[in-house]
Records
---
Amino acid sequence: MGNSMKINLKVWRQKNQNTSGSFETYSVEASPDMSFLEMFDVLNEQLIEEGKEPVAFDHDCREGICGMCSMVINGRPHGPKQGVTTCQLHMRSFKDGDTVVVEPWRSNAFPIVKDLSVDRGAFDRIISSGGFVSVNTGSAVDANSILIPKETADTAFEAATCIGCGACVSACKNASAMLFVGAKVTQLSELPQGKVERESRVVAMVNQMDAEGFGACSNTGACAAECPKEIPLSVIANLNREYYKAKLNGK
Amino acid sequence: MKLDSRIPQGELSNKWTEYKSSVPLVNPANKRNINIIVVGTGLAGASAASTLAEMGYKVSAFCFQDSPRRAHSIAAQGGINAAKNYQNDGDSVYRLFYDTIKGGDYRSREGNVHRLAEVSTNIIDQCVAQGVPFAREYGGTLSNRSFGGTQVQRTFYAAGQTGQQLLLGAYSALERQVGLGNVTMYSRHEMIELVKIDGKARGIIARNLVTGELERHFGHAVLLCTGGYGNVFYLSTNAMGSNVTAAWKAHKNGALMANPCFTQIHPTCIPVSGHYQSKLTLMSESLRNDGRIWVPKEKDDNRAPNDIPEEERDYYLERRYPAFGNLVPRDIASRAAKERCDAGYGVGPSKMAVYLDFKYNMKEKYGRAEATKRGISNPDDATLVELGKELIKEKYGNLFDMYKQITDEDPYEVPMRIYPAVHYTMGGLWVDYELQTTVPGLYALGEANFSDHGANRLGASALMQGLADGYFVIPYTIGNYLSKEIHTKPIPTDHEAFVTAENNAKERIKNLMGIQGKRSVESYHRELGKIMWDKCGMARSEKGLKEAIEEIKALREDFYKNVRIPGSADEFNPELDKAGRVADFLELGELMCHDALNRNESCGGHFREEYQTEEGEAMRNDNDYTCVFAWENKGENNWEVHREELNYENIKIQQRSYK
């Protein structure tokens, strides 16, 4: 294989939630065109051949949209590149001989399942508490009967591109989920369809967020800096605004 | 077995309306006592689960991912079709129906496809009401674009991530019902057995992928919304976890598989770069609105693409199909790319790629329009490109970024290199008009069924079908079955049928874990994929298919002797999950080859080298093959084939032409 590179890996291994974990060291021959996860595929095949247990990690679409992959690489969620998920990170971002440290998302609200895989059910429960428009199938009016300014649609869309990966939580020193919640609240409060329930929604989602054990926001902005979809920090300001407005109105 | 599609009598355009007004209903009080199992939470599954729960049924939903929001519908890029005619360009329900039948090369059912076209408009309304942020014009109305195989603009979109936005809409509706207690959600669960009692589907055995525990779940009806089986080819645009297991277990328990060989090879994907490659990435068909496909006129031309002058480029789609140009349907565009590459005109390091070039439209179409808008007279080339780039970015920005990330080349500067890849499977579980399989009480929705796309699916129609089935079809059709089930009390899961099914699953897992051979699951999957791609891929022949069948049999035998699955069965063990899926692919692959061998014609994505016109186009045999082949499992990799005739009462079957 041309321009092959040797990567030294320090990977977090933990059998399950009830055991403690530790770092293990491995060495892999990679190629610059490989994705980071393909490098892990190579490692795992190697481990299986040696009769050892492969590293468990979450991944599915491998095109940066499903939000399943989740590795903290050299201390940064999704690794060193701006605006990409782990699966879209390629080995050309590293150098031959590099040592790379790989850990799972770190947050009490995301318990470890095994090795690099965590349980992000808390995000589903937050959405389930209010991240929707209460409209049953069949009761919609014609799609063009409510005009929506392009700028509004674009802002809503930008917030709606959140993939729910949890990098924001992992990046935050408080493990706050404000960027995730802010993105959904912004998408729906911008659009006329979502405005009806904006107050009850934001209160319910924030309550659930707190109940799940996510921390408070202290405005360091690490979440937005590490977000693979570059959700802007302004959604948090918007979340706060929506929340206070709702509270002032006695919700 | 006689296959009855149960298409209602009457005028084509009245069938669905009349069906809806006469189908038996289940009253609200009874709905509360009826359990429905929904497997899979993509567009079809999430929309069905949420809608049925809204209606009052008790729903249990299952997905193998860690959250229902991650189902692979999320990755659909380009858009969703609907016959809204918002662009006033002559679209209608009939035209969408016609385009879909023709696009499918006359191998789908008129009744089903017309219904799909009818409900397409409701889907857009419903999604907008949920807060799906579709692209809009400055006046606030919804924006549209074109997709292959059509001459109107009927595709609604949200940049290059329409699937994500639609799925998140359906997912939020689903989560709302979870919050209301009407849906119980089981994430990281995989269905591994169908439970039948007295011939009816009554539940499933699911494996909790975190603990390895086997669970029994009862349902008055079971809905499989489990997507397609493109991963039988190993390399495809499917997600890594996409699999056939749930559908295959149903197939082995009585559900027929229809047209399994009908596979869609998508023309515009990023080419394979190395042996370690784990999946292929699609570049949306919407790019063909503005990208022109070409190869050099000379063989082995090694110049950089921008150094090849205009007159030395062969825009082969525009040359061969002037009426549709770069927007011919997928099967045709894919074969044309293969033809050029096989003939030695391919580009890039592997020579198995063609160019998709945006320069012309960036400059001439968008650049010039923008210059006029801004009142710039006599703009130079650089200004035009700069202006055009902004508009291209707005339309396709995320796709261009993704391309650059993967290939390290900037598509704003150099043309994309693309090559066809496995993308979608038109074949699937046989269903009737009500989406019911040959097992009473077992339904298949979305890509998991075979029903609407014939031998080739048109772009932006998968999202349409998934949501049509889930939001607007199954809520009506399932009533016909469940209205007769209101006296059936929930069956306790200590019933012997559940015990037997669980024991079968347990035995199978023990067997797999006990092999302890030398080869990884991945290596078998990769080898199977290569056989399938080489011999049951874009071009198929009698000789190749016969070889493939023998090779798959041998590979399967070896798998059960030499596969190594590390770890244990009672913990989180992704290798074991994968082993179960690959074991099923090793059976399905063989069936696909039998089906391809059995269909002695070329149609849509199924191209048999023996059956082609002088110009290399697919040559159908309408006399013998205007039908569906549905395969019944007879155990031990034996099948009996059944035939459903397709009757065209409204559309005249023609040689498909896009010239």
---
Amino acid sequence: MLTSVIVCVVALALFWMAAFTLWWQMHAWRTPETLAATRFEQPSGEGALSFSLLVPARHEQAVLEHTVTRLLESTHGGFEVLVIVGHDDPETAEVAAKVAATAPDRVRVIVDTHEKKNKPKALNTALPHCRGEVVGVFDAEDQVHPELLSHVDHAFRATGADVVQGGVQLINFHSSWYSLRNCLEYFFWFRSRLHLHAEKGFIPLGGNTVFVRTGVLREAGGWDPECLAEDCDLGVRLSSKGKRVVVAYDSEMVTREETPGTLMSLLKQRTRWNQGFLQVYRKRDWRQLPTVAQRMLARYTLMTPFFQAFTGIIIPLNVAVALVLDVPAGVAVVTFLPAVTMLVTFMFEIVGLHDFGTQYGLRVRLVHYLKLVLGGPFYQLLLAGAAVRAVWREQRGRGDWELTRHVGAHLTREDVAS
Amino acid sequence: MTTVLPGATAAPVARPAAPAAARPVARLRRSRPDLLVCGGLLAAILLVQGWNITGFPALGDDEGTYLAQAWAVQRGEGLAHYTYWYDHPPLGWLQLALVTWIPAAFSPDVMSVAPMRCAMLLVSAVSAVLVYVLGRRLGLPRWAAGLGMALFGLSPLAVVLQREIFLDNIAVMWVLLAFCLAASPRRHLWHHFGAGLAAAVAVLSKETMLVVLPALLLTMWRHTHRDTRKFAVTGAVTACLLVGLAYPLFALLNHELFPGPGHVSLLDGIGYQMSRPGSGFVLDPGSGSHAVLRSWLYYDRVLPLCGLAAAVVLVAAARWSRTGRALAGPAAAAVILALVALRPSGYLPAMYVIQVLPFLALALAGVAASAAGALLRTGAGRGRRQRVAGRSTVAVLAVTAAVLVVPRWYDGDRSALTTDANASYRSAVAWLGDREHVADPSRTRVLADDAVWLDLVHAGYRPGTGAIWFYKADLDPAVAETLPRGWRDVDYVLASPTVRRDAATLPLVRAALANSEPVAAFGEGEDRIEVRRITGAEGR
């Protein structure tokens, strides 16, 4: 009897968690109108705002030149590019100087002299030098669409927003089984879930393709140099103060990125994010959110990595308990609820992969669908591992950055050559 | 608002076809005329179906079975009053148990067929409203949706069948809900998901609903937007499959999925249903199926015949008619069900037609709306005279239809409102419950049909082994065990038409009938009900 009650309670809790996550994940596809509203509007008229685009680069000499060159191709009239390099990184500095020389009126190089370096410190170093009305952040390996700035400009003017978050998309789904899942995670996050957050007024921002009005950013004191998820933190601080955030996703306009090159680096990256989320949670800025629903959403979202780890392990365990122990049939059916929700999520992921392929003109083969399905449990294990690792590191007070290396797998050969 | 100034930007970016503009969504809940039409019709339907619901039609054996199973569920005795053998998925009577729980808790005696028909009134009411909502969602004008609702709820055939405690009525309600959700005006992902769930519940309430699912899918396909369709349809199919699979999963958990010695199994149940002896080709005048068809047409010809014709027309006209396309789903459902009924060697149960009724009603209403629309259409080139001619034609057609239909329906519905077909059953049960005739019911064995089984239980007979559902005496080993001397261990037989008819294939029941004499008889002729006492079993 006691076993039955425990199993039921755990199963129902898991079910609600899985159901909510699924509900939010599918936000953009709720109705055709919702989906249409997630896109950028077609810009009208001349660009009116000026942009300062920050590109922090650390040991990125392989991809930096390409990224900045592409930024310079932007069709928008008013922007400057600030490349931020470390004083101890001559290779990247050299590449940066070389690019700056090609367009001296557009590109400047800022040198970050912090002893211990990380991305928020680099960004803060550049913030006083920004001349534009809007600050945009890109990573050194990003492929930015030339039309993006015009669209962002229009979005700022049309909505009166303080922050515009553009889409970021991992593209190299064919590289490995985990890159496939990683790409799809991004797809669901930027295509769908972030829009829900923008609508609800609580949003953890992404690390790049994020645009903030310079005044708002300075007022907020820039980025938190001690936080491992400075992007998420910024979003939480700004939305807690009631700043308006707009998210727009257009497969044409997304910033293309690559997945981490090895499983270990993915684990490290995920650990850093999770730890960052944990830090943001403990900073309690989200407590200033006005409504209970918003605070619940914040609490849940910031704890998601840990819930995810928990559910990934408990759901199969719970089903196993129901099958092995002799519980009544009704109880057994209840224990299947979370697993059923997981199956529904799986099905939507398969459709999502198909849609991803259609949106980006990529050929998704049967083997990729198989990888998606078979890789699911293992990816779940990876997420669980990253969550456990994050908690462990946070407990031990290890807050240093484990940087992700980039090899340029998302660039096609022509891109790199050009 | 989007204007591209010359030279402002490079070539506009290619983007998907114009995004779905926000469309006005009519809210039926807030539309007073809709509420009035629907509410008025609902009141009429409840009155006609509810009045004399206990008296007509005659109590059915199947009704008793489902209700007895619900009773067993309520008492925590499992899924049936005898061994559950996967004859039907149990969700139908699980719902019945849920709905009747509270009245049964207050007064256990009302848990018998006649009073509990009131539960079906609830089902009919929900279904009728859903027919209206579906009609509106598929684009029918208010009057046509109302016509569909009236056809569905007031046809004498519908009145007779919807009063009875049949799983089909419950399944129809769920499948109508599924259609309504599939035609969600907001085209909402989770509405479509809900349609999948409702469809699964419909199938698990009555398995024959499976054949309607393609028509449901068609409706959903038409009511989804290109950009979100793959998510909506996949969601719905997944939801339906996962819930549907709960049934085999349940069997598996009970170790009853596969056949084996000493226990029932789902596969055996399916095997039985698939191999039921056919009742012949429905158009062959000598066949059992044809007799069933005749019994339907006895009550009403308009809805089955005109409705089917309308459905066929709509399906055939789907290519060029807007109404045809809008109503393609319900029309296809009606046509599919008709084709299934036309199998030459299939088994056609009397309640089969219940599943088709809402689709026939909607198809007929759709054709009426289409015809009226065509006649009343005032094009630019049409003069006043033509408009008058059009209106007169519609008026003449409407009056003709009313003159042809209303008197027949009036007769049919009047007999449903006034006939008492169950007096004999009540008297027979009262006789058996009278201590002057049967001194100790708890030590007496009666073979009876399921229509009165619960009444006998309430009268004090032991469920299952005292009040014995007559089939089980021959077919259920667990019951046969309690009758070691066969018919000699039985005290009475309540010989209803069903018992007399089916005794032909049941040796013990046949012997019991042969070795008994009537001690009381109620009614006359074929329909009479006798209480027969077993004779020649001395030495007990």
